[in-house]
Amino acid sequence: MKLLEDRIRKDGKIKEGNVLKVDSFLNHQMDVKLFHEIGLEFKRRFEGKEINKILTIEASGIGIACVVAEVFDVPVVFAKKTQTKNIAGEVYRTQVESFTHGRVYDIIVSKEFLGKDDKVLLIDDFLANGKALEGLSTLVQDSGAELVGAGVVIEKGFQVGGQIIRDRGIHLESLAIVESMDDKNGTIVFREQ
Ligand code: 5GP
User: Fold this and answer.
1) Is the pTM higher than 0.95?
2) Which residues pair with 149 in a beta bridge?
3) Residue 129 C-alpha to ligand 1 middle, in angstroms?
4) Residue 140, SS3?
5) All domains of the chain, ordered by start, with CATH?
6) ipTM of the complex model
């Protein structure tokens, strides 16, 4: 998505440890007009697919997922990161290893909001090692819902997540795929799509 790639080149900051900072428009300050264009692009890419729910993970996926859900005209649910042990049976629960914080935490979704009638599109801001999307797809599987696909705004193509998710047979759409980035000279190379 050219508009997005141009914006990443203009405002993205490359940090040590393979981290791309885009918090001026994507996941801290948020450019909602850009989010709307992102929503329309996902709608185009999943054209013809029946989707009746968007699922994301807190916190940085929520803003984008809300705008995408408005474009798809479906509800959006976010998986909560939690330390509290809810009574078994109330929630679907799995564990996710955080790329940015380097620790493992539980994520939960209430059984009230995910079930066998749902046809789910996963949405997240970044795809790095694939742990967040794997965790979300486990919750979908446990609920008996159908996983239609996953949409991420930025895939870091030099990390393993994209391969893992595609190898699982999940229809993955990434709007910008960073092939390489160099924190010394600030260059970013995108994969041709
Ligand atoms: P994964 O689970 O695929 O390893 O990492 C995805 C999650 O880690 C995303 O939800 C995102 O919040 C965070 N993340 C991964 N890489 C980056 C990055 O380069 N920049 C930012 N801002 N977040 C990232």
Assistant:
1) yes
2) 121
3) 8
4) helix
5) 2-152+159-184 (3.40.50.2020)
6) 0.98
